Every structure is written in structure tokens, then in C-alpha cells.
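User: Predict the full complex structure for these chains.
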Amino acid sequence: MGLRERKKQKTRLALIDAALDLFLEQGYEASTIDQIAANVEVSPRTFFRYFGSKEDVALALLADSQDIFLAELSARPESESPFVAMAQAMRLSLTAMGEGDEADHARFVKTRRLLDHHPQFMAGQRRLMMANEQRLLAEIARRRGTDDLRSHFVLALFTTVARVGFEYCRPDEVRDADAMAARLDEILAIAEASLRPDWDK
Amino acid sequence: MGLRERKKQKTRLALIDAALDLFLEQGYEASTIDQIAANVEVSPRTFFRYFGSKEDVALALLADSQDIFLAELSARPESESPFVAMAQAMRLSLTAMGEGDEADHARFVKTRRLLDHHPQFMAGQRRLMMANEQRLLAEIARRRGTDDLRSHFVLALFTTVARVGFEYCRPDEVRDADAMAARLDEILAIAEASLRPDWDK
DNA sequence: CAATTTATGTCAGTGAGTGACAGATGACAA
DNA sequence: TTGTCATCTGTCACTCACTGACATAAATTG
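Assistant: Here is the predicted structure of the four-chain assembly.
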């Protein structure tokens, strides 16, 4: 990897860090692109060459985790039903986020803190999910053997379960990857208890 | 109802109609607030006194239907389980939208056409849902007798099922209230077949 | 070192959204 | 009818997110 590429990665992470810090300190609305760019000593125009919008920089890590999730999903064995495969892939992608160096972990926790305190990002999270919806739907249909309304139901139920697992927490709860994995298991148990066997076949 | 109140209702509907027509004719992004306001012969500043944002005017009817849904829900008998009560309320609020005069119906169809062709509104629809989430959650917890993670699961599953029922359709399908009610019944049947009895008790 | 590609800064511009103030217009009582 | 009051509206000035165009600087490649 050349020097140019390394510089870009560094600038991207610096922009994310500066943005998360500003958002958490003085609020999302009160923070401007000019401030973020100034803190990284970069022109505001450059910010928009890295992120398509102000919201995108707040959701940058979430977008990354989506890619990891999709990679894990396609590596799941064929024997698993669609729902089980997605649940396992989500568990693995969560632990993958928990690894990495100190800075990575700090960014992850800051992102969770930001999303917890600003419900306005819910819509953005949903937008991210939707971007991968077609690929997920194709994977579900492939595993089920048919593409019908039930495939949509399976997908919707999974994204819903994942979302509830991430959102429902006491305010004072630590939101690191381990805590989220535990919460995910909790809601998956409820879903399993509510659904008939082979409902997603 | 006084003259002032009637004028406001008229202006509000005129703004919605002008906005929907412009959005459908030349696209959402290409339409400006100035154009909408000019077509109603009102200042752009006045537009923002009726709607908080450009997106709000596109979702205005959806926001109205949410209110109807909540009213129907609180009128449901105590004997119904949370999920059944919400499903019935949704059916009734859909038929309520189907009634009304010619202009009301036209607005409803235009809104559906707009949302079908512009996936960027999905996030906004989700934002609307969330605005009522607390009230729905309270109603579910009240009917179940406890407020725990399962209440969140019931709520999330219902909103998800409703969303899939509204979204999943062939592109050429007519999107009037009757067609949407039929689609809702279809997805509710799948949900019922997938879930164990008394899962939401 | 020279040629080419690519990232960045500067500049000018559009459009959404907001606060403040003044004037217009219904609502209401005498 | 008239005058007072509350409320709605238009105008103006402003902030900020976001974009296209062009010139410059820096990295890559030979």
C-alpha cells in the first residue's frame, strides 16, 4: 500500500474522530463541517470528498460493519437456515468490531454513545440497512430456494431483531461489542421462543 | 370553526397538492420550496410555518394516517392481544383513508406513487413511525401487563410487518387503500403462520 | 528527472431552513 | 361600526450543507 493510500486512510480516520468528538461535546446540530475540517486542518471541500454528507461521517463505522457482516454471511455453511446464518454472521461481525487496536475500540464506543443519545440517526441507520437489503434478500432466497413474500418477511424480521438488540438498553449501560453481543443473544432467544420451528425454511 | 382556521386548512392542502404535483412531475430534488410556494401564491417563509421541512410536506398524509391509527388502536377491545389489536387498527385506518372526497383520494394515491418511486423517503417513514413508538410501546405494555424486552419485540415485529405489507408490491400495482389492505392481510397471514400461539401475551 | 495521475484548496454558487420585525387580517367586545 | 387584541403573513438578512469548476500541489510511474 503506497504513501498516498495511507495518507487517505489517516485523513479519513482523523475526520471521523474529529467529528465524533465535536458531536459528543457540543451536539450534532451545533457542530459544523467547517469546525470538523478545521480540527483536521483540511478544507471543508475535502471533507465532502471523503463523506457524502454530515450524517455519513457519524455513520461511517456502521457502514464499515455492514461490509464485515456481509462477508461473514457469505461464509456461513449451506446447512444453516437463512435466519440462523444471519444471526451467526451478526455475532461474528460484532466480535470483529471488538477486536482491533485502542483507537478502533474508542471510535466504536463513541459511535454507539452518539447514536444512543441522538434518535435522529435512526433513519440514517435504516438507510444503511436498506443499501444492503437487495444482497441480503438474494442470499435468503438462495438458501430457501424460492423468492416470495416470505423471504421479505424473514429479512424484515431479522433486521428488526438486530435493531431491537442494539437499541434496547439501559441508558447507563456500557455499549462495547461484548455487551451488544450479549444483548443480541437475549433478543434472539425471545425470537426463537416466539417462532414456530422451520418458519424460515 | 372560524374563517381563519378554514383558510389555514385550505392553504395546507394547497401546499401539499402543489408539492406532490411538482415532485411527481419533475422529481423531488429538482423541485424547490420557492416553486411550491409560488404555485400556491404564498411566501417561502410561510411554507416553513406549515411544514418543518421539504420532506415533511411529502409525508404529511402519512403523518395524518398515524394519528388515525393511534385513535383506532385505543378503541380496540381489551380482549385482543397487542399484535391483533394493532393489526385490526391498521386495517381500519386504511379503510378510513379510502373514504373521504375525491381530492382526498387523489392526494392519497399521489403520495403512494411518490413514495413508491423514491426510496429516499423510507428513512422519513421510519422517522414518522418512531415518533409514535413510545405511545405504542405503552399500549403494548399495558395490554401485556409488563414492560420488558418482549414488548419491544412485539412492537418492532408489528411495524416491520406493516412496512413489508406496504412496500412489497409489483411496480404496476394500483396502490389505493383497498389494494394495500389486501396486501396487509397477506403478510399478516404469513406472520401468523410463523409465530407460536400467544407469542405476544 | 520528466510525465502523468490523483488529491487538495479556492472560489462562486444553489437551496434548505431560521430569527426578527413590520404590516395585514381575522376574532371579539363595547 | 369601531377599536383592541391575537395571530397570520411577507420581507429581509443570515447560517450552513452541499456542489461544480478550475488551478495547484503532491505522489506515482517510467
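Residues 2-4, 7, 32-34, 44-45, 48, 52-54 of chain B lie near DNA strand C (CB under 10 Å from a C1').
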